[in-house]
Specification:
This is NUDIX hydrolase. One of its GO terms (molecular function) is hydrolase activity. Belongs to the Nudix hydrolase family. Keywords: Hydrolase. The chain is an alpha+beta fold. It has 2 domains: about 40 residues, no CATH class; about 130 residues, Nucleoside Triphosphate Pyrophosphohydrolase (Alpha-Beta Complex), CATH 3.90.79.10. The chain contains 3 helices and 10 strands. The strands form 2 sheets. Strands 4, 5, 6, 7, 8, 9 and 10 form a 7-stranded mixed beta sheet that branches. Helix 2 runs antiparallel to helix 3.
């Protein structure tokens, strides 16, 4: 884990103006002091964090296709969702896997955690591996509509090359899975 941070470029927050408080995100405008003493403004999207699951069923990854309003199109993605207040990432990952796909597993293995858009948002996604799945019924949220699919590694990589998969968490999961198949390790 990267322990040291270069403080030479640190920006000190002088003021925070809250612009919007929503169900999933909030937006604020921060007035900051730059390292050279000048001031600037930063627009920051605050997010509670999220989880994503690389679920493997019969040597295929479980994906869902769902419409994403921000992009005005459907995307093929691994199961994922936001953290509820006070929820641990592993618990959220198990919940999202069950809700979106109907699959359950006894154990999840952490793969990595990463920031989605650090230039303007603090969202972090915790990515997990789920194997030894048992099938059940999905329990979608009332405003959630999706289609579950299964892809081999070769199909998933072809979808990335063809632009059918363009979601960063899913691409990250695909290449982690490829590494895992080749080496037995995720790191």
């Amino acid at each position: 884990m990267y322990a040291e941070q270069n403080q030479a470029y640190k920006e000190e927050t002088m003021e925070i103006e809250r612009i919007y408080e929503g169900k999933v995100i909030s937006l604020q405008k921060d007035k900051v002091t730059l390292p050279d003493g000048n001031t600037a403004f930063r627009e920051v999207v605050k997010h509670p964090g999220a989880v994503a699951v690389l679920a493997i069923w019969q040597n295929q990854m479980v994906v869902v296709e769902q419409y994403r309003k921000a992009l005005e199109r459907s995307l093929i993605e691994i199961p994922a969702g936001k953290l509820d207040p006070g929820e641990q990432p592993m618990d959220a990952a198990m919940r999202e896997l069950k809700e979106e796909t109907g699959f359950e597993c006894k154990e999840l293995r952490p793969i990595c955690s990463f920031y989605t858009s650090p230039g303007f948002a603090d969202e972090i996604i915790h990515l997990f591996l789920a194997e030894q799945l048992t099938q059940g019924e999905s329990r979608l949220d009332e405003d959630e509509f999706l289609n579950k699919q299964f892809l081999t590694l070769e199909q998933a990589k072809a979808y990335v090359a063809e632009g059918k998969i363009r979601d960063a968490k899913t691409i990250t999961a695909i290449y982690a899975w490829e590494l895992y198949q080749k080496t037995g390790r995720m790191d």
